[in-house]
Amino acid sequence: MKNILVIEDQASVVHLLKRYLEQSGYQVFIAYRGKEAVEIISQRHISLVLLDLMLPDTDGLCLCEELRKHDPFIPIIIISAVTDITSKVQALHSCADDYILKPFEMEEVLERINVQFRHTQHMRSGVEKQSFTAGPLSIDFEQRRVIINGQEINLTYKEYQLLYILVVNSGKIITYDFLLSKVWDDEYTSEHQSIRTYINRLRKKIETPAQRRFIYNEPKVGYRFKVDEKAQ
To answer: What whole-number distance in Å separates Cα of residue 112 and Cα of residue 101?
Structure first.
């Protein structure tokens, strides 16, 4: 049975989510405050998080990033009444996997949850070893740490997902559509420019002009992560 953590301070919303999730076969844990959420995720195996941004004791985005530290691959879906597009984009770019506006239909929530579980299964299935090293680049998959020339670098959640998929498929051509389907939701499947933007940011963080590139363009197709002799 999969465990879902609901982080929400409105009792009516908690009751609705709990009832439908339990009817769908999930075990539900409830946290009304950020502190409670951190305690639960530290003590329990949580499969997915539903998170409200407006909590009484903490900022939702800060909590999202804190939860991510406990499990780099845990799906986090924001459920919020905040309609500002800037807030939504910030959440999706920093740590959240999906964003659902209140009021919501439970059928949509359940389908979004199913999508995230499919994505997570793919992400976890590729981990066959705990770390990766190539020249100045080192990755600790368990701790989600990326190090360049001995210095740990900060990657956003989606930057790390992109790097992870490229590295575990090193040497293979990874298409734009494959990356979009694994890192973004289905609604973004035509936005190849989003991929290019994130790849450019990732390159700036893990590559320098003085060393050979790791991420190579495959024109009109996608990208390939390649380790050559100069990067060994």
So the answer is: 12
Residue type, 223: Y
pTM recorded for the entire structure: 0.64
Using one digit for the tens of pLDDT, what is the confidence trace for 126-135? 555 678 888 8
* Tokens standing for residue 213: 């590139």
Domains within the chain, CATH numbers bracketed: 3-125 (3.40.50.2300), 131-231 (1.10.10.10)
The 3-state secondary structure of 17-77 reads HHHHHHHCCCEEEEECCHHHHHHHHHHCCCCEEEECCECCCCEHHHHHHHHHHHCCCCCEE
The whole-angstrom separation of Cα 148 and Cα 126 is: 22
Token couple for 131: 């770390």
